């Protein structure tokens, strides 16, 4: 390609990512200060590592612009299989950090394979959706897409890293929708996930929040009840399938559809109690009412909301935050970096972060609309789903309107794997943008 083509880089997209990364470094530095004084001693040198990772990610993004993204199409299967092997290795031999065996490495150097698995899964799923084409059978396209996504998601859930595993769901939903898969299949997965979450937390919600002894929901986690319900609904589904085949009535289809949603939700909610740790399920409870466990699982939310509220309109000023400097906020440089940001830069600063993420999402969607190559368009759709989910869940978590799931705020939260994988995504999007008119 000619030099003038590379000058068509989407500078808005790159600028937004770089500014967010700079904000991350600034407030990781702030989170490392002890005491109220901005000249207080540094309790952490995390910001130095974040600078190195940020620069490395930026350079990787620029290199990816020079690489024709279509070359990775044939390699996408090997990238995907490679990350599956890494995820399996991590499950067995990985390092335990914050209760999850999610890291591999030597000494102080380590990577989190699940962060890179999101990118390789997006690329391989985009290849499948592009190869199968819109004219193919929607059901089989959707089933194979689910298989591609659920394999890495399941390995990450085993670690167990509940938050990162959830990111694969919006990736799947957005990409299959963009690829023209029938909406009923996308809604089927969405309904199943929503019902699974409800069934998973209802017994604890009843016992810890309602404290209503006359209302007993513990049967929802009883193996005998789950088994009987699945068998009964399975029998109803089989009868409905027979009725649909014989009489071709639409209501038989919707009976099968509804029964399948309930059966899968019951099974998934039951299995979640076997896989997830108690503290992870408790995180889903305390966002409904943090006062259920104010000194334990609810502490993070209470302190985070306090920090954000104390920032007011314009904030307390850079390096003047109290919640972070006095160490009231746990994981303040990772999960709760937005709390520190808004405490020191206030509501206006929060709006700036919202605006920068909005720029990223809108530019990605523009590439989806203008790209002549479905493979490239689907990659950008998956990246948009990933960035949207990370942003809304993390920011919602800090504001107490989403459960704490351990999902970082991309570009800003401390972590090498997180920022480099996000920059790889930006680099891929920039490469697709430069070649958007090529097929």
From TrEMBL:
GO terms for cellular component: cell division site; plasma membrane. It catalyses: [GlcNAc-(1->4)-Mur2Ac(oyl-L-Ala-gamma-D-Glu-L-Lys-D-Ala-D-Ala)](n)-di-trans,octa-cis-undecaprenyl diphosphate + beta-D-GlcNAc-(1->4)-Mur2Ac(oyl-L-Ala-gamma-D-Glu-L-Lys-D-Ala-D-Ala)-di-trans,octa-cis-undecaprenyl diphosphate = [GlcNAc-(1->4)-Mur2Ac(oyl-L-Ala-gamma-D-Glu-L-Lys-D-Ala-D-Ala)](n+1)-di-trans,octa-cis-undecaprenyl diphosphate + di-trans,octa-cis-undecaprenyl diphosphate + H(+). GO terms for molecular function: lipid-linked peptidoglycan transporter activity; peptidoglycan glycosyltransferase activity. It comes from the Bacteria. The keyword Membrane applies. Its EC number is 2.4.99.28. Its main location: membrane. Coiled coil: none annotated. Signal peptide: none annotated. Pathway: Cell wall biogenesis; peptidoglycan biosynthesis. The keyword Transmembrane applies. It is a multi-pass membrane protein. The chain crosses the membrane at residues 12-31, 51-70, 77-97, 103-126, 138-158, 164-182, 187-205, 225-245, 252-272, 345-365, 377-397, 409-432. It is an enzyme of class 2 (transferase). Peptidoglycan polymerase that is essential for cell wall elongation. Belongs to the SEDS family. MrdB/RodA subfamily. This is Peptidoglycan glycosyltransferase RodA. It comes from Leadbettera azotonutricia (strain ATCC BAA-888 / DSM 13862 / ZAS-9). The gene is mrdB.
């Amino acid at each position: 390609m000619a030099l003038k083509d590379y000058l068509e880089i989407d500078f808005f997209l790159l600028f937004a990512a770089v500014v967010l990364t700079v904000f991350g470094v600034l407030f990781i530095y702030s989170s490392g200060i002890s005491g109220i004084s901005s000249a207080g001693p540094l309790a952490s040198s995390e910001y130095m590592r974040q600078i190195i990772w940020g620069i490395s990610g930026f350079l990787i993004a620029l290199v990816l612009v020079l690489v024709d993204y279509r070359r990775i199409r044939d390699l996408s299967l090997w990238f995907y299989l490679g990350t599956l092997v890494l995820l399996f290795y991590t499950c067995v031999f990985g390092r335990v950090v914050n209760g999850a065996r999610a890291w591999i490495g030597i000494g102080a150097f380590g990577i989190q394979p699940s962060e890179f698995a999101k990118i390789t899964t997006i690329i391989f799923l985009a290849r499948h959706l592009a190869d199968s084409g819109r004219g193919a059978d929607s059901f089989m396209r959707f089933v194979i897409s689910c298989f591609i996504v659920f394999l890495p998601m399941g390995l990450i859930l085993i670690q167990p890293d509940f938050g990162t595993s959830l990111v694969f769901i919006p990736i799947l939903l957005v990409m299959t929708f963009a690829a023209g898969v029938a909406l009923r299949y996308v809604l089927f997965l969405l309904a199943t996930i929503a019902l699974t979450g409800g069934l998973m937390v209802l017994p604890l919600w009843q016992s810890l929040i309602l404290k209503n002894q006359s209302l007993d929901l513990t049967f929802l986690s009883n193996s005998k009840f789950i088994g009987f319900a699945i068998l009964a609904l399975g029998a109803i589904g089989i009868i409905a399938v027979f009725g649909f085949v014989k009489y071709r009535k639409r209501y038989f289809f919707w009976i099968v559809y509804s029964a399948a949603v309930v059966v899968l939700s019951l099974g998934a909610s039951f299995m979640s109690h076997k896989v997830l740790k108690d503290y992870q399920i408790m995180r889903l409870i305390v966002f409904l009412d943090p006062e259920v466990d104010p000194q334990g699982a609810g502490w993070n939310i209470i302190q985070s909301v306090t920090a954000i509220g104390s920032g007011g309109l314009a904030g307390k000023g850079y390096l003047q935050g109290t919640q972070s400097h006095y160490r009231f906020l746990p994981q303040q440089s990772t999960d709760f970096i937005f709390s520190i940001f808004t405490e020191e830069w206030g509501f206006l600063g929060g709006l700036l972060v919202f605006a920068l993420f909005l720029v990223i999402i809108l530019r990605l969607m523009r590439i989806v609309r203008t790209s002549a190559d479905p493979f490239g368009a689907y990659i950008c759709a998956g990246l948009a789903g990933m960035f949207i989910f990370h942003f809304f869940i993390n920011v919602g978590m800090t504001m107490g309107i989403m459960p704490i799931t351990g999902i970082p705020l991309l570009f800003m939260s401390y972590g090498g794997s997180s920022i480099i994988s996000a920059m790889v995504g930006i680099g891929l999007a920039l490469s697709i943008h430069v070649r958007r008119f090529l097929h």
